[in-house]
Every structure is written in structure tokens, then in C-alpha cells.
Amino acid sequence: xxxxxxxxxxxxxxxxxxxxLRRRLACMLYESLPSFGxxxxxxxxxxxxxxxxxxxxxxxxxxxxxxxxxxAYFVFVWYKxxxxxxxQTWRLQLVDARTGRPPSLQxxxxxxxxAWPSLLLIVSGVGILWAAFVDRxxxxxxxxxxxxxxxxxxxxxxxx
Length: 160
Fold this sequence. Notes:
Strand content: 5-15%
Distance between the termini: 39 Å
Order of helices and strands: EHHHEHHHE
Number of strands: 3
Strand order of the largest sheet: 1-3-2
Helix content: 55-70%
């Protein structure tokens, strides 16, 4: 299932390697740890505090708050750093698929919004099957929609 990683289309940075599907899936699993922390502090704690004050928030508002909190986190780190904490650990970098440059704010927003249905498809297996067997470059639907891709960013050698 982990086919060799491809390269960016012609006219982009030379010798840039797309991250393998296996590496991106492992990173997504690892991403749950910092996401849990962000959610606990900026989503769950405020809900508990509001409940303590006697204010009950409806389920749809809770989901909207979660969507907003996670969106603020991911869009910020993708736009400002090009990678989340988990992506840094796995040496992955988010770039514009056409130019190989950092993604625009609009691309980060589209990627985040489209990641929700794409990830739900991954949970059902369809998203993984799409990336593994349908997409020629093993890209997820949210990256295709946003015009982004995740590249493998090997460590830089340090001079002696």
C-alpha cells in the first residue's frame, strides 16, 4: 500500500519528494495527541466552565466551537509554519502543489474545511482507498481540493 513517493509536477522545485502515504497516515495518528491538548484547553475547558456557571451549550454549538478551535490551530500552524507539531516530528511540510512554495491562507482554509469530510472518508476506509489506489500521486482529497501537497523534508546536513 505504500507505493514510492512521487515528485511535484514539472515546473516546481526540483527533486522535491512527496511524502509517502504511510508517513502521512502515521503523522495523522500522532496528530491526535497535540490536537487532544488543544481541544482540552480551548474547547472542553470552556464548556466545563460554562456548565459550572449554569450555562448549557447545545450540541450543534459544541461542534461549531470544536470546528472553530481546531480550525484556528491548524490554519495558523499551516499558514505560519507550513507544518504542525506532528508534521515537524515526521519531517513533513505543507506546500502549494503548483509552486512548491508555502501555502496561501486561502489554501489553508480550504484544506481545513475539506479535511473534515475527507477524514470522515478515511474513518470509513474510503479516504485511504482513494489515496492508496485511485489518486496517482497518493494525495488525499482535501489536498487536491486546496491545491496543496505534503512533501518529505529530510533533515539538513550540518557543516563540520
